[in-house]
């Protein structure tokens, strides 16, 4: 049965518009109900397509889901729909699953809720069709939930199709190639595009899909572009033009063809006739791809995998992971993308946290703003599994080793989620000392992977970088192993910067090692992308190649060369720089001042007066919100400079302020302004983010008690959730709660037991008052 | 796609209510306008339906929509038809604002304000199209009215989007709390009535 999609197939055309035409039901009427209320109408549409030459028809269940129907209704509709489709005499019947009509992710339903909904549809159909089709999706998150629901609850072949715009992306930004890579690797037996555009516009999308898809491709366009008049949608491509355009698409290697909105039996009839003599030449794609939820990446050339989201040896990242400072970690992702990384390694393994929950939060946040494919890095298989399930692209798993336990636990996950995997050349006996032995381990991993059906092209061999300072010759073993791995057809990767551990001027050695590794066949360098383009010195290269006296020459070439960065001479004081919002200047001036002063003086003498001054200018209408924010950012930079210079964090013991945008609301610019300004005044700010569940807020209050809570809401509907949050928190904690946001008024805040804050300055004033009172009470 | 533009002066005017701040970054205003105009993909959907006032409700014929609320009824008094429209700047601008939130909060605020201005301009253009349609049919239009104003319930948003096919043709979705995604999206109702002398 899995061969079904390898035939040349003609699918049916539009169902909803045909039924509306036939029955006169109004716009917005759930046409799935007609399977029960007017089955003969549904049957007649199916029959008209079969008569016209369709090999397969979709059941009339596009919008049949638990958000529209009760469970018994859903079951009845699906049963009746399958019955109608089967009675039509079609060779094949496909269970049709459309989008749930909900946002999957931030502000909407969770991935798991979407999965459960699709699962109910699949179970209700009891595998009584010949195949299942998930179609017209625009969110890859929703598509993945549907694919997993089908693969885990049915044995039928699956066709997965999405809708793309003229920019070759879905409304949510997924492009055709990344969809093809993601869906096929997750187990779709055929993939394709339907709806949204006409056949002429879909040609270029069909081309992209056939270029990267390892499974058959289906195209089901509309009868042209829609236009609306008198409450009806009209399409402008005639049946003949439709069929001729589809013939061109078939020549690309697309063997499954049909029609979507606006197409009629006449379109399908001519489609059959005009394409019957054309052979769809299905080509297997060249190369191997990974993808994010928006873009696919072919693993070719020298690629950079950003290493900075990893707590190992990085204090600031450790601290961010421990405090749940996801903003910092996500910002590291954004910066690495800007610095030219092609892939991002994501590791949040630090003791003392729930790594799985932290990884899922970080992935969710990263995927909202970073478009690079991710490399999921954890030593815990349960963390890998949870991350692979939630990640909306095709990931690289970092990593599996030659140890039996690792092979047994990691490879099944790689298989199930269609990922690529980094193979560490080490096993129960540790890291071999020779290049040949390391490659033996790589070959053994590949052999084990093959048993799971994981092809060699999906294995990326890491020949392991060990510090050259710990033993001369380490670099050469790694490089030689790299060359051998390449000769055996593996993709390769290395964590580059380990090489310089224990040495001065590590960047020089790292750059030199990178250069050498690329020459030996390195495909993916796991490095800090900021070092991309740097060249290693000849001394560093000689050191790595274990040349005579190279270590001494390297060390002598790097003594006394500390460049002193001179700050641009200017009459501008730190306070001026902050008031006028010059972040870079503020950073460099603070760096100088802190050499002579302590945090307290820097803050009380320069930063706070500057913030007070700009606050006054704001209140008197001489500057506006952008200038206030710029000043706050400049102050933040000054503190950052001081913290870097002192190697310690400043005191933020004035009091703890927890801040969140309430459940159901994703607007958070205002909240972030408050957060930045309040933190500058010396309060410890715990930012819980946006669309925050009641329980998370209460747990944070418990963890940080005594504290003050700040809640933000921008919509009238979510202001109600602010009231609910306050009631829920107050069940256990009698703490002051500040309320702000566009729709919040003094009266409303008072009515729900909150303290109204007009803006960030007002929040600072109120926090000062609250904590001052509290300090007096304590005394 | 439909073109909409704003200038740095428009943006400055919006953030400072027409006054000139004592200092500000003109470059950032320019960048915010440029980036906003580069990444938006303005789209809209309009549909015209006859209406009937029945038992305190406004029936939108040919759809499953029934509007409730006295303020909307007052707004549509004398109208025989409505134009329902949905306008959106697309998802990319949301994502850029989100990114700027972490990289540069000042720029984020400017970008968000630029996007709001562009949404307003887009709505103005659509209103113009509807007025032209009304004029051709010898009719006049009311001003725009959005769900959530007065006593018109936000809970009808999903059905509204369905009626103009905005979910299907523009990818607009609505959350349980009534929030539409993309965030820079507006729906509105414009009444059409016979021309008065």
CATH architecture of the largest domain in chain A: Alpha-Beta Barrel
Describe the global form of chain A: globular
Mean pLDDT of chain B: 92
Q: Which segments of chain A are poorly predicted (pLDDT under 50) over 5 or more consecutive residues?
A: 560-569
Summed over residues and divided by their number, the pLDDT of chain A gives a mean of 91
| Main sheet attributes: strand count, strand direction, barrel closure of chain B | 6 strands, antiparallel
Number of domains of chain B: 1
From the 3D coordinates, which CATH architecture of chain B would you assign? 3-Layer(aba) Sandwich
Question: What is CATH's topology name of the largest domain in chain A?
Answer: TIM Barrel
**Count of extended strands of chain B:** 8
The largest chain-to-chain contact, stated as pair and per-chain residue counts, equals: A-B, 61 and 60 residues
Termini distance of chain A? 79 Å
Computed Rg of chain A: 30 Å
**Beta strand % of chain A:** 5-15%
How would you describe the overall organization of this protein?
The longest helix of chain A is centred in the C-terminal third of the chain and has 22 residues, at 625-646. Chain A has 29 helices and 25 strands. Chain A has 5 domains: 2-275, TIM Barrel; 302-393, Alpha-Beta Barrel (TIM Barrel), CATH 3.20.20; 402-558, Alpha-Beta Barrel (TIM Barrel); 574-646, Methyltransferase, Methionine Synthase (B12-binding Domains), Chain A, domain 1, CATH 1.10.1240.10; 656-778, Rossmann fold. With 779 residues, chain A is an alpha/beta fold. Chain B has one domain: NADH Oxidase (3-Layer(aba) Sandwich). Chain B starts with 7 loop residues before the first helix and ends with a strand. Chains A and B meet through helix 12, helix 24, helix 25 and helix 27 of A and strand 1, helix 4, helix 5, helix 6 and helix 7 of B.
């Amino acid at each position: 049965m899995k061969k079904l999609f390898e035939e040349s197939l003609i699918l049916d055309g539009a169902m909803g518009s045909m039924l509306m035409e036939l029955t006169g039901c109004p716009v917005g009427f759930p046409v799935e109900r007609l399977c029960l209320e007017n089955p003969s109408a549904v049957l007649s549409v199916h029959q008209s397509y079969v008569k016209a030459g369709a090999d397969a028809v979709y059941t009339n269940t596009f919008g049949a889901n638990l958000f529209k129907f009760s469970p018994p209704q859903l079951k009845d509709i699906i049963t009746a729909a399958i019955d109608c489709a089967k009675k039509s005499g079609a060779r094949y019947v496909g269970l049709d699953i459309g989008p749930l009509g909900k946002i999957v992710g931030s502000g909407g339903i969770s991935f798991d809720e979407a999965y459960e909904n699709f699962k109910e549809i699949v179970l209700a159909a009891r595998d009584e069709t010949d195949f299942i089709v998930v179609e017209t999706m625009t969110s890859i998150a929703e598509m993945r939930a549907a694919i997993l629901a089908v693969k885990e609850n049915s044995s039928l072949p699956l066709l997965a199709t999405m809708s793309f715009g003229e920019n070759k992306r879905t409304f949510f930004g997924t492009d055709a190639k990344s969809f093809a890579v993601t869906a096929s690797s997750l187990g779709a037996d055929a993939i394709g595009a339907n709806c949204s555009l006409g056949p002429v516009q879909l040609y270029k999308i069909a081309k992209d899909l056939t270029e990267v898809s390892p499974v058959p491709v289906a195209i089901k366009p509309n009868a042209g572009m829609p236009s609306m008049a008198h409450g009806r949608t009209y399409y402008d491509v005639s049946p003949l033009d439709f069929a001729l355009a589809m013939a061109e698409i078939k020549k690309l290697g697309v063997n499954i063809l049909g029609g979507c909105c606006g197409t009629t039996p006449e379109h399908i009839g001519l489609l059959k006739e005009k394409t019957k003599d054309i052979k769809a030449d299905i080509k297997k794609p060249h190369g191997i791809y990974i993808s994010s939820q928006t873009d696919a990446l072919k693993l070719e050339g020298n690629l950079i995998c950003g290493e900075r989201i990893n707590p190992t040896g990085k204090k600031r990242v450790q601290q961010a992971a421990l405090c749940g400072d996801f903003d910092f970690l996500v910002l590291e992702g954004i910066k690495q993308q800007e610095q030219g990384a092609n892939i991002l390694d994501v590791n949040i393994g630090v003791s003392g946290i729930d790594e799985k929950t932290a990884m899922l939060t970080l992935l969710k946040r990263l995927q909202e703003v970073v478009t690079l494919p991710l490399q999921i890095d954890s030593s815990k298989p349960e963390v890998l599994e949870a991350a692979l399930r939630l990640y909306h692209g095709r990931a690289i798993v970092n990593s599996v080793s030659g140890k039996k336990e690792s092979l047994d636990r990691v490879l099944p996950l790689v298989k199930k989620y269609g990922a690529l995997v980094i193979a560490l050349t080490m096993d129960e006996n540790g890291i071999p000392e020779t290049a040949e032995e390391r490659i033996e381990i790589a070959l053994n991993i590949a052999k084990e992977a093959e048993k799971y059906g994981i092809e060699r092209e999906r294995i990326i061999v890491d020949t392991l970088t060990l510090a050259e300072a710990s033993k001369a010759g380490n670099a050469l073993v790694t490089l030689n192993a790299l060359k051998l791995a390449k000769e055996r057809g593996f993709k390769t990767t290395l964590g580059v910067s380990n090489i310089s551990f224990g040495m001065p001027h590590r960047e020089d050695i790292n750059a030199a090692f990178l250069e050498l590794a690329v020459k030996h066949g390195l495909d993916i360098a796991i490095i800090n992308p900021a070092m991309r383009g740097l060249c290693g010195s000849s001394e560093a290269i000689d050191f790595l190649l274990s040349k005579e006296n190279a270590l001494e020459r390297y060390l002598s070439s790097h003594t006394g060369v500390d460049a002193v960065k001179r700050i641009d001479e200017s009459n501008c004081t730190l306070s001026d720089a902050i008031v006028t919002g010059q972040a870079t200047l503020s950073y460099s001036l603070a760096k100088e001042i802190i050499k002579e002063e302590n945090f307290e003086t820097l803050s009380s003498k320069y930063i706070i007066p500057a913030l007070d001054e700009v606050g006054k200018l704001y209140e008197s209408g001489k500057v506006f919100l952008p200038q206030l924010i710029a000043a706050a950012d400049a102050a933040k930079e000054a503190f950052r400079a001081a913290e870097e210079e002192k190697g310690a964090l400043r005191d933020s013991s004035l009091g703890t302020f927890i801040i969140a945008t309430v459940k159901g609301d994703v607007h958070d610019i205002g909240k972030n302004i408050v957060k930045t300004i309040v933190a500058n005044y010396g309060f410890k700010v715990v930012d819980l983010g946006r669309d925050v569940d009641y329980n998370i807020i209460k747990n944070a209050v418990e963890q940080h008690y005594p504290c003050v809570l700040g809640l933000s809401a921008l919509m009238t509907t979510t202001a109600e959730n602010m009231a609910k949050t306050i009631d829920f928190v107050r069940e256990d904690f009698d703490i002051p709660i500040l309320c702000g946001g566009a729709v919040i008024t003094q009266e409303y805040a008072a009515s729900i037991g909150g303290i109204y804050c007009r803006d960030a300055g007002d929040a600072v004033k109120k926090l000062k008052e609250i904590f001052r009172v509290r300090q007096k009470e304590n005394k | 796609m439909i073109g909409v533009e704003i200038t740095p002066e428009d943006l400055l005017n919006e953030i400072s209510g027409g006054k000139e701040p004592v200092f500000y970054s003109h470059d950032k205003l320019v960048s915010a306008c440029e980036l906003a105009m580069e990444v938006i993909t303005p789209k809209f959907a309009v549909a015209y339906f006859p209406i009937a006032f029945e038992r305190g409700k406004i029936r939108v014929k040919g759809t499953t929509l029934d509007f409730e609320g006295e303020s909307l009824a007052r707004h549509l008094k004398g109208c025989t038809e409505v134009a329902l429209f949905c306008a959106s700047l697309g998802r990319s601008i949301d994502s850029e604002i989100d990114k700027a939130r972490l990289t540069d909060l000042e720029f984020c605020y400017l970008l968000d304000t630029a996007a709001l201005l562009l949404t307003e301009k887009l709505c103005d253009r659509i209103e113009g199209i509807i007025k032209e349609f009304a004029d051709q049919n010898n009719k006049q239009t009311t001003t725009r009215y959005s769900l959530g104003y007065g006593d018109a319930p936000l809970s009808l948003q999903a059905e509204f989007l369905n009626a103009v096919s905005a979910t299907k043709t523009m990818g607009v979705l609505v959350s349980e709390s009534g929030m539409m995604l993309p965030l820079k999206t507006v729906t509105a109702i414009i009444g059409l009535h016979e021309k008065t002398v």
